[in-house]
Amino acid sequence: MLSPLIPLTLTVAIATLSHADTVVIPTSSFDSYADLETYWNYLYPWGSDHNGSARMVGNSTDHSHISVANGVLTLTATPTSGQGTSSESPHLTIDYFSGTIYAKDDITVDGTDVVGYVVEGEFIAPTAVGTWPAFWLTAVNSWPPEADIGEWKGTQQTWFNTFNTSSEVKSTIVAWPDDGEFHSVKAVLSSIEGDSSDVTIDYYLDNVLQATHVGADFLGAPLYLIIDLQMEGSSGSPGPTGTTTYQIRNVQVTKVTS
């Protein structure tokens, strides 16, 4: 019951101030290359290769595989040969050049100053055998933790994955709409009152809650946010013989502070 000495409007204002939202990556980050380079870096945090058969290519003057126009980021994979093997395990033969970016700011829920994050975007994701686009968080210092907000492994499905250890993985797999239109995925990371190590992660497809996972030891762990078009590997092979595109728009990252 409200105290008669405290006006209702003041009470609402106090409640509103209990948490503050700060947009750290706005939906305009793909409006131009200047905007892109304000908020994102080219390639993976560790270089051009990862666990598939695509080598990432792109920089401030080479936009053949990482391009922006009209608020849409397009990652493009094209077949190649004679490139040797990936420098990252499992060291697959490089069959494609493709594109990846990662956010300049890490995402860290510490439970004190930062009690949560909302990470969201809209996607047209390829789902042919051998295509492996993703929108994901992964540990800066040591893997895991990892949270896959969207992962499409060569099927008309998206995977919401939470890696607590290399073998302890929670996966929720849902159908991905087969209409060639943009659809949204979102993760809401929140600290847990009285828990000094874990966070909850709510995963959404088109703003409908699909799953709630517990991220063990995510609290205080800095995470990279990565958008990539990897190929083959876990998505099967052989991959496409022609050009593959992955389109992304309206990515927004919001920090929730106490």
Give a structural overview.
The N terminus is likely disordered. The chain has 2 helices and 17 strands. The strands form 2 sheets. Strands 1, 3, 4, 5, 6, 8, 13, 14, 15 and 17 form a 10-stranded mixed beta sheet that branches. A 7-stranded antiparallel beta sheet has the order 2-7-16-9-10-11-12. The chain has a single domain, classed as Jelly Rolls (Sandwich). The protein starts with 7 loop residues before the first helix and ends with a strand. With 258 residues, it is mainly beta.
Entry summary:
The chain is mainly β and 258 residues long. It contains two helices and 17 strands.
Helix and strand element order: HEHEEEEEEEEEEEEEEEE
Which residue ranges are poorly predicted, with pLDDT under 50 across at least 5 consecutive positions?
1-17
Give the quaternary arrangement of the chains: single chain
- What is the overall pLDDT average? 93
Number of domain modules: 1
What is the CA–CA distance across the termini? 24 Å
The best one-word shape is globular
CATH topology: Jelly Rolls
In percent terms, what proportion of residues is strand?
over 45%
Total DSSP helices: 2
Characterize the largest beta sheet: strand count, sense, and whether it forms a barrel: 10 strands, mixed
Tally of DSSP β-strands: 17
Structural class: mainly beta
| CATH class type | Mainly Beta
CA-based gyration radius:
19 Å
CATH structural architecture: Sandwich
Percentage of residues in helical conformation? under 10%
